[in-house]
């Protein structure tokens, strides 16, 4: 009688082994998030790098490799230097104003008073409103003939009866109007972050300082600001990233003028070249100039927040 060979044992996948292993379970749980972030940000980022090294236009798949020529052409452009300077002016001035005003608003809203909830709701409205819709509203308010801002300044006797500033007709006034609208829009976001940070500070610390005779400014400078420095760094980091990459206010309010291209920032100029002028290679190269600046700012802010948190 012929002996029957034993059947090879088929190893079955044991899912309990994955569940019992913290390392494998952690990788499995993080994988969807990592894949989502890679598809959402990694693929467009690397595709932008590829576009910046080629000459191509929208709607066609013809790519002509030009190396760093797009970057060289941009660096030789006077409009790049103006847009870069406008980007830093726009970001620095607006974020300083946002941080100072948000701190004042957070201090006021932390107190108990009648109508506080209604005021918190009203302050959030600029952040909740669509940016294009709210900016069009401000464009009407800065209109050269029917400006509500000019009417208010004239009623308060700040300007004369025949003085009508052309808010969107002169470069410096146009940039001031852009910064004002951006501060108006970003202020609720920073206020909510700082208000959340203030409510997390133990009340015992503030009561002990008051018992020791510390006045408002002493508590603000020596207790509140040092304890809130990590959350202020996060608020500033988000504000800087949003402002550096924002083109909505500039494009809707001034479209880069007046005169031509006077108020362009890098994001709006990249849109102008890449989408309106249909030069995807140079548009991608312009937008990538923001990356090293944002990377350095992010590392600096996160390290500052981490050190402050450890020090506390």
Explain this structure:
The protein is mostly helical and 312 residues long. It contains 14 helices and 2 strands. The protein has a two-stranded antiparallel ribbon with strand order 1-2. Strand 1 and strand 2 form a beta hairpin. Helix 10 packs antiparallel against helix 14. The longest helix is centred in the N-terminal third of the chain and has 32 residues.
Could you give a quick summary of the protein structure above?
This protein has 312 residues and is mainly α. 72% of the residues lie in helices and 1% in strands.
| CA-based gyration radius | 27 Å
Q: Assign the structural class, choosing from mainly alpha, mainly beta, alpha/beta, alpha+beta, or little secondary structure.
A: mainly alpha
Order of helices and strands: HHEEHHHHHHHHHHHH
Strand line-up in the sheet with most strands: 1-2
Q: What does the average pLDDT come to? A: 83
* Biggest sheet features: 2 strands, antiparallel
Ends apart, CA distance between termini: 83 Å
Report the count of strand segments: 2
Layout of helices and strands, plus pairs?
Blueprint: H1 15-20, H2 22-52, E1 54-55, E2 64-65, H3 69-75, H4 78-109, H5 116-128, H6 131-141, H7 148-155, H8 171-199, H9 203-211, H10 216-245, H11 248-253, H12 266-276, H13 280-288, H14 290-311
Antiparallel strand pairs: 1-2
Helix pairs in contact: 2-13, 3-13, 4-8, 4-10, 5-8, 8-10, 10-14, 12-13
């Amino acid at each position: 009688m012929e002996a029957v060979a034993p059947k090879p044992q088929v190893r079955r996948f044991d899912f309990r082994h994955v569940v019992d292993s913290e390392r494998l379970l952690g990788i499995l749980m993080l994988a969807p998030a990592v894949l989502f972030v890679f598809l959402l940000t990694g693929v467009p980022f690397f595709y932008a790098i590829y576009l910046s090294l080629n000459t191509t236009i929208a709607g066609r798949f013809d790519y002509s490799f030009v190396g760093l020529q797009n970057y060289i052409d941009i660096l030789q452009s006077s409009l790049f230097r103006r847009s870069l300077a406008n980007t830093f002016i726009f970001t620095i001035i607006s974020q300083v104003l946002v941080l100072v005003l948000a701190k004042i608003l957070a201090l006021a809203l932390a107190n108990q008073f009648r109508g506080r909830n209604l005021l918190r709701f009203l302050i959030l409205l600029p952040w909740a409103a669509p940016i294009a819709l709210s900016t069009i509203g401000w464009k009407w308010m800065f209109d050269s003939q029917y400006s509500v801002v000019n009417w208010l300044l004239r009623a308060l006797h700040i300007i004369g009866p025949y003085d009508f500033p052309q808010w969107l007709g002169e470069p410096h006034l146009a940039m001031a109007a852009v910064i004002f609208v951006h501060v108006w829009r970003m202020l609720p976001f920073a206020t909510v972050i700082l208000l959340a940070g203030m409510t997390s500070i133990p009340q015992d610390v503030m009561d002990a300082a008051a018992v020791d005779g510390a006045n408002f400014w002493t508590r603000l400078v020596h207790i509140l600001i040092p304890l809130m420095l990590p959350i202020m760094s996060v608020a500033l980091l988000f504000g800087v990233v949003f402002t550096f990459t924002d083109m909505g206010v500039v494009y809707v309010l001034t479209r880069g003028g007046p005169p031509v291209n006077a108020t362009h920032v890098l994001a709006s100029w990249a849109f102008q070249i890449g989408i309106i002028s249909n030069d995807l290679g140079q548009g991608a190269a312009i937008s990538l100039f923001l990356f090293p600046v944002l990377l350095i700012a992010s590392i600096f802010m996160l390290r500052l927040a981490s050190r402050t948190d450890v020090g506390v």
